[in-house]
Amino acid sequence: MSKPVVARFCPSPTGNPHVGMARTALFSWAFARHHGGRFVFRIEDTDAARDSEESYDLLVDVMRWLGLDWDEGVEVGGPNGPYRQSERMDIYADVAQRLLDAGLAYKAYDTEAELAERREAARAAGKPSGYDGLHRDLTPEQQAGYEAEGRQPVVRFKMPAKDWTFNDLVRGEITFGAENVQDFVIVRANGQPLYTLTNPTDDALMGITHVLRGEDLLSSTPRQIALYEAFAQIGVGDGSTPEFGHLPYVMGEGNRKLSKRDPESNLLGYRDGGFLPEGLLNYLALLGWAIADDRDVFSLAEMVEAFDISRVNPNPARFDAKKCEAINGDHVRLLAPEDLATRLIPYYAAVGIDVSEAGLAPVVPLIQERMAVLTEAPAMTRFLFVDDVSIPAELALDDAGRDVVRAAHGALDALGEWTTESIEGSLRGALIDELGLKPRLAFGPVRVAVTGSRISPPLFESLEILGRDKTLSRLAAALAG
Ligand code: GLU
Q1: Against a cut of 0.85, is the pTM above it?
Q2: What is the pLDDT of residues 132-151, one digit of tens each?
Q3: Is the C-beta atom of 72 inside 6 A of ligand 1?
Q4: Which fold has domain 88-247?
Q5: 44 CB under 6 A from ligand 1?
């Protein structure tokens, strides 16, 4: 590649950040990093009615949480700022005016009703229903006449009448016929510039060389390429056109497009639900890309090293929440235990358990293999950090259970050294050898009495961590209950 790569992520801050956005950000970021280029994070907030500050903050937070760092953009600044479109309105007004002055765009005065009527007629005649170019060549007198009527014009870009062919980095050569790309609005009647103008203007001024984005934007590409050609004539940017790559759709349940509103699409849900950023990113990478045929767990660094946009699969990718969790579990197991402990602390705090890294150190080995998401840890080990547990009614001990717990209490009360091995030895002796019970019947009631649940991390290790006093008092409480 001749020029250094500059890629970008430029979401609109509406609603909660979603999975599709993160996939786009990841692929763009990995592309920039793979080529040793720059990554720009811009915010496209030109729609005051839909954009929100809250959504902006969430986008910044989630990008930081994911660890997709940017060289230029919001919060960090850079040579081509500002990086929020709401702060660049004078730039768009200037570009629109220069397009008008150069005859590359024009004012169109059609009313909504007139447009609808002509669209209908075109449709009935089997013709393309886009703008018919009626106000392309108005005389100054005609314009003055409409203005005198009080009509406010939109600005339309004059599409050159030709076919548009480009080489999509993911899909290969794509052609849009001239008849399918009509003159389009770049500035609303109220003066508000539209995405159609602001996005290519900023890509040009920010020196973006590669645009990677979702397939839903494919139809805007011929228009944007036409704008770049116009920009070259009026000196906006360096006169070049970026390359485009359109990432596959992400499908949800029932083979329909994953929507922003689907619960599994909410990115914050993954953070709050205990996903590791590296686990989630690994899964998102699989939505269209593979590192190798026989391997689907990898680090971000490995992705950067291997990422090849031409190997992205253009076919729709299916979002599989179970697989996403399983991949996260693989990353949990890859963490150093101390690292896992550090990352677990906020999830304990979130359920009101105040624990330190030192306090978690003995617990981590019991649970690291057993969880897919971090929120499972406090759920599984709550009994270790609270004073008392309550036993749900359906697990209340029957007479046989009481006999077991009584025998366990006696044996453990008499135990000298309190270690996993000594606890195991004494319980096996008292319950299996002396009472002649099968392991499940022997240890089940002890587990329920001590943890309040039928499922727990390994029992003997857990009792060692819980300590002698709490263990004995819980066994006693279960007998009294
Ligand atoms: N703001 C646009 C969006 O969120 C960006 C589209 C693009 O990447 O060109 O859809």
Answers
A1: yes
A2: 999 999 999 999 999 999 99
A3: no
A4: Glutamyl-tRNA Synthetase; domain 3 (3.90.800)
A5: yes
